[in-house]
Structures are given as C-alpha cells and as structure tokens.
C-alpha cells in the first residue's frame, strides 16, 4: 500500500491485469496503491520473480494543501519516516483506524478480459454506477497492452474512448475524449489526472460537455461522440489498434435511448453490460432493447453479473473528483515525462497566464470570448460566475465563430467581458465538435480590471500548447465543471500545516491567523445564528 516506483529485475508479475516481465519492466513503473480504493495485489508469474520498489513521495506531499491526500498511503510506526509504502499483512489498519479491502476480480471477468484482449478490435463497456465498469475497462486495457506471454503478444497501444464527463479517467472533469494509451494504468484517476506529452498517454481529441444533466443536450453529446469516432477511424486506418469504450453509468440509468443511439454510432464488435448484483430471475426489459441494438450493429452482446462486497471507503466519489482536480492543477514540470511529479505550492504562489479580454494601448485581445454552457444567466453576474471556476480552452476553425473576434457583446459593468449570447432556447450554444476541440483546462484565479486580462492557472506540463494558440481561434468554455471549493481552502490548510510543524494547536492557529475572505472558522459560523436567507456553506 502506498506509492512507489517498481522495477522488475527477474521473472514476471501480474498487477491490475497487467503482465509485466523483466525484459520490459526494468525501466520501472509508477504504482499508486492508496487505501481510497481496493488495493491492487502483485502476483508472481514465474517460479522466482525479483522486484525493486523505490520510494515515490511527490503526490503524498499534496496532503499539506488538501487533507484528503493524507492518511491514505501508509502509516505503520515501524516504517521509516520517508518511506512512501508499506507491506500490508492484515486487512484492518490500526494506524489508519479502518479496514482495508483487496481488489478481487471474479473469474467471469477474467475470462471476458482474456477473450476481448485476444479477439476483439472494439469493445464497449456499459452498466449502472457501481457495476465496476471503470475497473473492467482499465484491466482490459492493461491486459491488451501487456499481453500474456507467448500465448498473446502485447499491443503497442490501445485507443480509449472515455464517455464519462463526470468521472473521466485521464482528463479533467467536463470532457469526453479519445485517447491513445501505450502504458498500463497502475493507480486511481487522481494519479494520472491529465495526459502529458511523453507519458505514454496522449489525448487525440476532446470536447467539453456539462456535468450537470439538467443542462444535458443529447444531440450535442451524440455529435461529440460521432466526431470522436470519426477521429478514431481516421487514426485506425494508418495506425491500427483495439478500441475500448467506457460509457457513463448515468446514461444507463437516465438516457437509455441515447445509449442505444451511441451503439449505432460506435458500431463495436462487442458490447459488455456489467451489473453490480447477481443475475435476476426476471430480466430487465431494457436488456432486450440493448441486445437488439447490438444485433442491429452486428455486435456480440454479453452480460456480466457480480455482486461486489459493500465496504466503507474513506473517500466518496465527490471527494475523489476533488482530489483529481487538485492533482491536475499541481502537476509539476518534470525532466522525465514518463514519471509524473507534483508540487505543493498553493495556487496563490503560482504564476498565472494573462489572457487579455479587451484590446488596450499595449495589449491585443487574446481570445474571442467566454462561452457559458447550460442555462443562460444575466450578463451582470458573468464575472462572478467565472471567478475561481474551472474552464476549458478551446480551439476552433469555424469561420462563423472566428468572425465574432472583437465583435461579441460585452457585459455592461466595469469588467466588459466578451460573451457568446444564448440561443433561441436560452441556453449557451456549444461549439461544433467537427470544427473545434479542447486544448487544455484552466482555473480562473481572478480578473485585472484596469489592464483588462483574466488570470488563468495552467499546469506547467501543459503550457507549451498555450503558446501555439491564435486569438481569433481561441474560446474559453465555462459551465462544464463542479465548483472548485477546494481552491478556496489551500492557503488555509498550508498555513495550518506549517503551524502544526511548529507545535501550535489547531484551535490556536485558526484563532490567530487571518483567514481568506471566503473562509470562516466553524466557531465564527456558529455565532452567525439563523439568518432569514439561504446560505451555501462547505465544511472542510
């Protein structure tokens, strides 16, 4: 349990369905095995296998900014203080004060993974939330990339179509994307929150989609998927590789007609439907609809039933998404692109990019305008909505959109922000997926009214792509992500952590420090009493 760099010196091992041998594993793999998830197990595949584990503490340092990264890696008193992992001997951890769980894969999963990795060029994985789709998809990719000895040679890469904008695996929230994966995945999403050049994971194309299903447009989502499928076919014609598709569980529950249409767009060889319970005596009528849709597209349809044991994990899905966001914005530049690293500087300590939103005497306008997806709001509050929000930077080659450069309406306040007006349905009109794509994700740190620029925080490892942007091709897209409440608390947590190092009690530190405007101690909050108004508070 923990985080470490693993090198295979002799023999071969299996971990998370990836078969790694000494011939290919001596350069090392980054493994992240926190107690937020069921622990991956290493198994030797030869009579004798030798591995070397090296400490890797970078991601653990984020606990000084976000406490959710603490008490999830290791904590045995016998461990050296700088040791980033420990050998788990029992499933109740006395120091962490909670039971641990081990990732146990049902035999029917193993047989399907072997079959798909050997015989399928395209596999779609569907099912309700909690069915294990994400785990299955990861293990299928890992097995395909690493093979199975002489029985099944490894593939050089796999295409991965991620259609879960709420919980994406390799990108920021609010995106559906097509990726090229060349290395196995040995950790949860917050340990690989974005694709970095040279890391063995590449984003081919991505589109922004709101995570709030109240504002979900089925036609726009389908257009995004069709464009990503077209990108896959174009790539696959010259650089063939298997395709694995992971579809959000929410579509299975809330948008079943769209799910059927998606199968028609993707046209996979196999459709696997996973259920988080034992096979029912009476089938779901929707199963017949899915089977018919698969048959119409000449796809092999299979159902897998498995009831996972219930367990109380220290973090819920919302916590894990927050951890992914923190990890994304604290990625550090690294000389070794195959090894991700993090820095525990607060957002206030980072140098932002300045995007000029209105031409001045010394600056040119840097982008077309702000596009707010979802239900339209009054232009007078656009600035408030954007401030300290997560946005996506898009590039478009649509002449109609480019013609709006320096001609969009502006908010009628001191900020004068350029914005795309709503459509006839009073919603933000998204960009055409065929002529646009997302370049990267950023955090709005603030606005400079006099100099007319917005400050954007972008991970250093992604900054090279920013230098290639042209103002008349660039749009800043908002309204696709959850509110980054964690961003308000970083400086406070960092100060409290520093005080704790100096032996100051938590209560005394909070009482003496000057809190940020959006942060209040619980003691002060309780003094407010009951106001005749609704207040939204986030307790940390």
Automatic annotation (TrEMBL):
<comment type="similarity">
    <text>Belongs to the Clp1 family. NOL9/GRC3 subfamily.</text>
</comment>
<dbReference type="GO" id="GO:0051731">
    <property type="term" value="F:polynucleotide 5'-hydroxyl-kinase activity"/>
</dbReference>
<dbReference type="InterPro" id="IPR045116">
    <property type="entry name" value="Clp1/Grc3"/>
</dbReference>
<protein>
    <submittedName>
        <fullName>Uncharacterized protein</fullName>
    </submittedName>
</protein>
<dbReference type="InterPro" id="IPR027417">
    <property type="entry name" value="P-loop_NTPase"/>
</dbReference>
<dbReference type="GO" id="GO:0000448">
    <property type="term" value="P:cleavage in ITS2 between 5.8S rRNA and LSU-rRNA of tricistronic rRNA transcript (SSU-rRNA, 5.8S rRNA, LSU-rRNA)"/>
</dbReference>
<dbReference type="GO" id="GO:0005634">
    <property type="term" value="C:nucleus"/>
</dbReference>
């Amino acid at each position: 349990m923990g985080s470490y760099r693993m090198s295979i010196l002799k023999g071969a091992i299996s971990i998370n369905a990836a078969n790694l041998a000494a011939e290919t594993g001596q350069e090392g793999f980054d493994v992240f095995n926190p107690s937020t998830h069921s622990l991956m197990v290493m198994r030797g595949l030869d009579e004798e296998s030798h591995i070397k584990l090296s400490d890797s503490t970078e991601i653990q340092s984020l606990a000084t900014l976000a406490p959710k990264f603490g008490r999830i890696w290791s904590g045995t008193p016998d461990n050296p203080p700088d040791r980033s992992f420990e050998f788990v001997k029992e499933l109740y951890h006395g120091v962490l004060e909670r039971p641990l769980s081990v990732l146990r894969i049902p035999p029917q999963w193993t047989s399907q993974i072997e079959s798909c990795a050997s015989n399928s060029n395209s596999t779609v994985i569907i099912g309700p939330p909690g069915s294990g789709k994400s785990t299955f998809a990861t293990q299928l990719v890992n097995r395909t990339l690493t093979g199975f000895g002489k029985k099944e040679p490894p593939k050089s890469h796999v295409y991965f179509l991620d259609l879960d904008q709420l919980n994406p695996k390799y990108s920021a929230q609010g995106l559906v994307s097509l990726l090229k994966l060349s290395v196995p995945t040995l950790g949860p999403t917050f340990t690989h929150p974005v694709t970095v050049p040279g890391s063995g994971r590449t984003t081919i194309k991505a589109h922004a989609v709101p995570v709030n299903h109240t504002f979900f447009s089925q036609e726009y989502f389908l257009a995004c998927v069709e464009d990503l499928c077209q990108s896959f076919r174009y790539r696959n014609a010259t650089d063939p590789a298997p395709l694995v598709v992971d579809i959000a569980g929410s579509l299975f529950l809330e948008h079943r007609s769209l799910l059927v249409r998606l199968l028609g767009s993707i046209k996979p060889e196999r459709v696997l439907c996973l259920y988080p319970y034992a096979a029912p005596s009476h089938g779901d009528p929707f199963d017949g609809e899915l089977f018919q849709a698969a048959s119409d597209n000449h796809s092999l349809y299979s159902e897998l039933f498995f009831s996972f044991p219930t367990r109380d994990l220290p973090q819920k899905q919302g916590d894990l998404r927050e951890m992914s966001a923190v990890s994304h914005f604290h990625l550090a530049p690294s000389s070794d692109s195959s090894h991700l690293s993090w820095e525990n500087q607060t957002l206030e300590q980072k140098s932002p990019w300045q995007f000029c939103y209105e031409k001045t005497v010394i600056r040119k306008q840097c982008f077309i305008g702000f596009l707010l997806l979802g239900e339209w709001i009054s232009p007078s509050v656009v600035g408030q909505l954007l401030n300290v929000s997560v946005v996506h930077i898009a590039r478009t080659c649509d002449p109609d959109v480019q013609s709006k450069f320096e001609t969009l309406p502006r908010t009628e306040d001191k900020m004068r922000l350029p914005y795309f007006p709503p459509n006839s349905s009073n919603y933000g009109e998204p960009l055409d997926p065929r002529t646009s794509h997302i370049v990267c994700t950023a955090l709005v740190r603030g606005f400079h009214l006099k100099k007319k620029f917005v400050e954007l925080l972008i991970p250093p490892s992604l900054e090279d792509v920013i230098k290639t942007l042209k103002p008349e091709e660039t749009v800043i897209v908002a309204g696709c992500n959850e509110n980054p409440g964690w961003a308000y608390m970083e400086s406070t947590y960092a100060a409290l952590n520093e005080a704790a190092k100096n032996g100051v009690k938590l209560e005394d530190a909070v009482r003496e420090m000057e809190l940020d405007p959006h942060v209040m101690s619980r003691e002060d909050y309780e003094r407010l009493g009951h106001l005749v108004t609704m207040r939204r508070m986030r307790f940390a």
